[in-house]
Specification:
Elements lengths: L6 E4 L16 H12 L3 E5 L4 H10 L8 E4 L3 E5 L6 E3 L3 H15 L1 H14 L3 E5 L2 E6 L3 H14 L6 E6 L2 E6 L4 H12 L6 E4 L6 H4 L6 E4 L5 H9 L3 E2 L4 H11 L5
Parallel strand pairs: 1-2, 1-10, 2-3, 10-11, 11-12
Antiparallel strand pairs: 3-4, 4-5, 6-7, 7-9, 8-9
Helix pairs in contact: 1-9, 4-5
The protein binds magnesium ion.
Magnesium ion binds next to loops.
């Protein structure tokens, strides 16, 4: 008998959540994930949002189901703590990730300064700062972000570990080795659930690292996914849904139903 899917890794915005649509959440998708969780399947939300922004998203949208794990900021891993249901770091991964990023941003200071200079003088993008310093930026349009990433791709030539994650008009600076796929791989290791038992779904640039087949055997994307995501999913033998957002995830889960 072939192994069964035991872990779901889904993006949030544009994948489970259809912003600006009515309904925002697909009932069939919510129901199906709930049923799978009831059968023992583990569900992780794998998002670019921070813990706080994800929590407010889940609350504001009155999410009817609750993830077992959250993978946030495209790199951190949290599980629900036994007391009080708050999120707590799972293992020492988040500490390692923070340390590696602090070291990287220190050694790549001049590249970062070049990027800041470009953004301030050549674009209308807004830089985003967090407690640890410069975190990323918001561009005015995806076209503007294309110009920014083109510049970064040149500037990082001598600092190949200095990289970024992008999602619509948002960009976050990061270490090249840390992304949604790496976080999923660590969760897979901690839970002892191999790639052959993992389903993943996402719609944008920052999802490609978990949809290219390296860390999840069953990648999928909704119809609204960008062409680069669809290409990655198809190359990995995954499923591109005809429906958008949550309805597309529902469709993809049904497509792989025989593997549950
Ligand atoms: Mg998304």
């Amino acid at each position: 008998m072939s192994p069964k899917i035991r872990l779901l890794s889904t993006d949030f915005d544009g994948t489970l959540v259809a912003h600006g649509s009515d309904p925002v959440l697909d009932r069939g998708c919510m129901k199906q994930i709930e049923t799978l969780q009831g059968d023992g399947v583990i569900w992780a939300i794998n998002t670019g949002r921070s813990v706080d922004l994800l929590e407010s998203g889940l609350t504001d949208l009155a999410f009817p189901i609750h993830p077992d794990f959250i993978l946030t900021s495209e790199r951190d891993i949290f599980r629900r703590s036994s007391n009080g249901g708050k999120w707590e770091p799972y293992g020492d991964w988040n500490e390692r990730v923070a340390r590696e990023h602090a070291e990287l941003f220190h050694s790549a200071e001049s590249v970062l300064a070049e990027v800041v200079d470009f953004v301030n003088h050549k674009t209308k993008a807004r830089l985003l700062y967090h407690t640890a310093g410069l975190e990323g930026l918001i561009a005015e349009s995806e076209e503007e972000l294309d110009r920014v990433t083109k510049f970064i791709d040149q500037a990082r030539a001598n600092q190949p570990k200095f990289h970024y994650q992008r999602n619509t008009v948002y960009l976050r600076f990061c270490h090249a080795d840390y992304h949604k796929g790496a976080a999923l791989a660590e969760l897979s290791r901690l839970l002892e659930i191999p790639r052959e038992e993992i389903f993943a779904a996402g719609d944008h640039h920052n999802d490609i690292s978990m949809l290219d087949g390296r860390f999840a055997q069953y990648p999928a994307c909704p119809a609204n996914a960008i062409p680069e995501v669809k290409d990655a999913v198809i190359s990995a033998g995954g499923y591109v849904a005809a429906k958008t957002c949550g309805a597309g995830v529902d469709e993809a889960l049904l497509h792989f139903a025989e593997f549950f």
